[in-house]
Amino acid sequence: MPTLFQKIMAGEILAEIIYEDEWVVAFKDISPQAPFHVLLVPREPIVDLSQAADKDSAMLGRLFIAARNIARKEPSAAGGFRLVLNNGKAAGQEVPHLHVHMLAGREMGWPPG
Q: First and final CA of the chain: distance in angstroms?
């Protein structure tokens, strides 16, 4: 069964896509936790980081490059941004497709969670 994210990437479910390249698609979160909240999703479906293989290192790096590229264009990220990767249900992962949350536009507290 395709995941929600695969359906978004296939155009079956509408989303506000703000960035895409051959490795990553980024779109606005439907339940934002910050003024700027996007999800960076690799095109390759990997359930979570725990299931990534060594061969996935280039794709994992491309998630960070995509975040950098988005931050360079997004005014609300100029003062800083946070990247969050939830791994598994206990960590809050809701969709079984690896993804990174990019949050910006407000002060972030520490520790998170």
A: 31
What domains are there in the chain, each with its CATH number?
4-104 (3.30.428.10)
Q: How far apart are CA 49 and CA 26, in angstroms?
A: 18
* Listed residue (37, 48, 44) closest to 6, CA to CA: 44
pTM surpassing 0.90? yes
Catalytic machinery residues = 99
Spatial distance between the Cα atoms of 42 and 80, rounded to a whole number of angstroms: 23
Q: Using alpha carbons only, what angle is made at residue 18 by residues 113 and 69, rounded to the nearest 5 degrees?
A: 80
Strand order in the sheet with 100-104: 17-20, 24-28, 36-42, 100-104, 81-84
112 pLDDT band (50/70/90 cuts)? confident
Mean confidence (pLDDT) of the chain: 95
Other beta carbons within 10 angstroms of residue 97's beta carbon come to: 20
Note whether 46 and 31 are within 8 A (CB): no
| CB of 48 closer than 8 Å to CB of 96 | yes
